[in-house]
Design goal:
Blueprint lengths: L11 H30 L3 H47 L1 H14 L4 H12 L2 H12 L9 H18 L13 H26 L4 H28 L4
Helix pairs in contact: 1-2, 1-6, 1-7, 1-8, 2-3, 2-5, 2-6, 3-4, 7-8
Amino acid sequence: MPLRKTLKEPHASHSFLSDFILGTQDGLVNVLGILLGVTAATSDIKIIFVATLAALGAESISMGAVAYTSTIARRRQYLKEVLREQSEMREIPASEIEEVRKILSDWGYQGETLESMTNNIGSNPKAMLEFMISFELKLAPLDKGEARRSFAIVLSSTVFGSFIPLIPFFFVASTNILYGSVASVIVSGGLLFFIGAYEAKTTIGSIWWSGLQMTIIGLVAGFAGYLIGHLIGAVPGL
């Protein structure tokens, strides 16, 4: 049976949500940490923009590339398991049928119902293959375009998230770096809360707790950059 027949539609909504959160949070926290670190060490607005924009570019491309290569690896793993399962279905069919029976039995099916369901699945190679991939190996299918989609979503969301901490600095004078930093923390915290709340609303959980948790994690990581920049800026001669 051709491999292409076992590849179904990807879990687009789940993939989009996880990739969007990954890119946005990583880009925002990374740039916020660098931004606070640089502003703690210098008040030169040009240096601040150069450092953060360089980080934005490097981080966005890096995150997109990681998303692409990791998705490719997951797809290859999936295809490898499909081939292995197809081989076992040909070479040791009785053992594979028994695995189907065990899974159904663990679900609570018994007697004639168990045997009937086992025989129905075992008599349909396509159904049996997808059953074993999903419920024995617990793997989700990935199509060829998933890696490109993941790259595009993570790249664009990282760029989006990275720009958020910078927004206040487009509206402050070079003498108001402190105000820009405070505004950056507020704006970044607001977006982090929104991301956490959006995740909870889209999946399950408390909107307020998820938003607060995301905000705390992101801002703690951002303030780590501030502490490093403050310590370096305090070293004489640097």
